[in-house]
Predict the structure.
Amino acid sequence: MRTTMALAVLALGLPALPAGAAQREALAPVAAHSGYTYRWSPQNSAVVLSRPGIVVVLRPGAQVYEVNDHDEVADAAPSYSRGDLYVTPSLAAHLQALARRFSPAAARGAETLASGDANVHGSITMEARQLQGSEAITVQGSAPASAPVTITLLAVVSSDIPTIVVSRNDVVTDANGRFEAIIPIASAYERGTLLRVVATSSPGVASAQTQLVMEAPNNGVTVPLEQLPH
């Protein structure tokens, strides 16, 4: 049966799906089911999904995607094959939820709640560093006052392994627009892991990102016990 399927693919001249595609869904049917208009944008090398109240821009190989005028982070980057993007079931479900959230009926019901966020504009600034003596990082930054900020950690552990979503953490800026968080890096403990930190907020607030290479918790510290002969 497997040989027959492989021959069928070759006969049709279609590229094989990427590894792990069995757990993915083609984006075009997902978009059609949720009422999105599906369009390929050659200028941006991206797929643009649109319906009243919402525009989503997804790019093959990129975990960060655009929802209206703010960024969100997928659990895994979309992959391109057979003339379409393939997305994880989690991202497909989120796109469907966004369609429901931005439906005309939902928009009318949320108009009052959203009016506050619509007036928030600005940008996020952020810096991150490894916390000495701990398997954690400390993140400090600024954004509009009293704004929600989501800090997403992404781990790049190998050129052969897809980027891993480590965690998402929600904070709120203070009256002066400052925020700070100490975030464990589990399960990105491997030394030399490239850790990307992405901070997003409400529509109208530009996102920010930075990255650092994870080292030993007490890197650079001389410990006498480790110097003893064994």
Remarks:
- Residues 34 and 192 are 41 Å apart (CA to CA).
- The radius of gyration is 21 Å.
- The chain has five helices and 17 strands.
